[in-house]
């Protein structure tokens, strides 16, 4: 088991902040500061349908562990950034990965202009950097359970569940209700219909989101990120298994790539899966994510 101290017990400051996107949205953020002057700024981009507050304890720990200013936030139409009913929401995955993630990165880069900048991305949170103009400011990108998924590339025991979700349950529920009931289907919070359909297109198409480049998504610049990219997989993650995480390296040809697979037994738990690595029950794994 990985051993660690508990620096989060040190006094800290938290601020509620707002982030303005290029297309006029206001996103609700939380900024965690260490009890001393920060030497680093880190933005954490969350996974699809996962509210920012899920990451709060990790962010507070990270602020103390790395003496960093750490920003978490909700994407538009999600959590504290929602404006109304999910039935009328029009946002999609591209809005979150491209526009909202860029807004958070830009805000942090402006607020801490003299500090090194890093990004931690969970699942969808690790996909947007090639689209961001300030990717060249990022010293390190750490992705957790991020990769170009396809419904046929899950472990055998999970393929039937994935096929049912993408081809039956997800489409039927979204057509009937006007949104994806994420809580019922085990995919996090409810999602706007546009987000589900785009997500489905990516996960049922070879090449994942490349199909949308220059169309629903801008053309990315894969050479912008020249720093360190740490690709972290979870051994028992059936949604984005380790081989798929390794394939994510193709989106960062100019970066220095490293790979890490976290095994549940190494951190003293029986299971982690796709979403639990940032939970307190997996706290022993947090130094691996932080790179400390």
UniProtKB/TrEMBL annotation:
Transmembrane segments: 163-182
InterPro entries, per the entry: AB_hydrolase_1, AB_hydrolase_fold, UCP037442_abhydr
AB hydrolase-1 domain boundaries: 42-151
Keyword check for Transmembrane helix: yes
Protein name: AB hydrolase-1 domain-containing protein
Coiled coil: none
Listed Pfam families: Abhydrolase_1
Naturally occurring in which organism (per UniProt): Niveispirillum cyanobacteriorum
Source organism superkingdom: Bacteria
SUPFAM superfamilies documented for this protein: alpha/beta-Hydrolases
Keywords, in A-Z order: Membrane, Plasmid, Transmembrane, Transmembrane helix
Phylogenetic lineage: Bacteria, Pseudomonadati, Pseudomonadota, Alphaproteobacteria, Rhodospirillales
